[in-house]
Prior knowledge:
Belongs to the ROK (NagC/XylR) family. Pfam families: ROK (PF00480). The chain has helices at 41-60, 98-106, 115-126, 185-189, 191-204, 209-213, 225-231, 235-259, 275-288, 308-315, and strands at 3-9, 13-20, 25-32, 67-74, 77-79, 84-88, 93-96, 110-114, 135-140, 144-150, 153-155, 263-267, 299-302. It is an alpha/beta fold. A hairpin with a 4-residue loop joins strand 6 (84-88) and strand 7. Helix 1 packs across helix 2 (98-106), helix 5 packs antiparallel against helix 8 (235-259) and helix 8 packs across helix 9.
Amino acid sequence: MSYYIGIDIGGTSVKAGLVNEKYEIVKKMSLPTYSQAGEDNGEKLANALNKLVRDLCAETGIPLGEVVSIGAGIPGSVDSQSGTIIYSNNIVMENVPLRELVLARLGRKIEMANDADAAALGECLAGAMKGCKYAMMITLGTGVGSGVIIDGKIYSGYHSRGGEFGHTVVEIGGVRCTCGRPGCLESYASATGLIRMTKEEMMSDPQSGMWELVGGDIGKVDGKTAFDAREKGDASAAKVVDTYIRYLACGVTNFINMLHPQKICFGGGISHSGEALLAPLRAEVYKEVYGGADRYTTELVQASLGNDAGIIGAAMLGRE
Ligand SMILES: [Zn+2]
């Protein structure tokens, strides 16, 4: 049996797993992420990675020398060739030579990729898109993340700057995105966008059942509020969900017209709405997709590995 180590670096914790060649996680461990602004954040992250890898080996009895490759998914932009974190607002880092810092401590090279790319690879190897050569994962969380797999490999563009599908425009002159561009898909299809649209609709309809769901406190609105109220037959909530799905479908149809993957899987908080999200999304997308949807149709499915996708994908970066 061959073993690999994958590390998923998030805003609150660093999760690491020892993964075998069947893509099963044998053992998982985590440490809190140190994400206060400071000059030695990179050093602290490298220390955490070094500790997690050594602890995983010690706990499982697998010698470090027998681990085939080690990889990490980073929440931000990464230069995979040089092993540098270019920028991450999530873990507050800029131009951190993480590969070099880990090498000095662990004596091993780590592979690096954007976390959304690593998760897409994980779902493609072992999850909802298993066996697909052409696949895409869209994460509907605080932002809209995307990972593209072409010919079984991550496609990330020149110096890993590509694949930012969340920052394509679905509304010219629309709501300004965190990236600065008005009308990005992320401004509408993220949980942040859905919450904004939910609150706007509640303000214009004081009778909406959504108020009851949040106990009259608009600060308690989350990505489920509109979906839950729609289930109960609330008309304003249905309006919010319809608008949300129209924007998401616009983006997804664009991606299919560009890449035509075999499958697109959806992860992140909003994807937990399952078929309440996917059924109307399919209806909208298949109505508009170029060439029609009666054959070789891109399947739209829910991601199946949760947080493990990022660990498994990162573990296999060196094996690509
Ligand atoms: Zn944007």
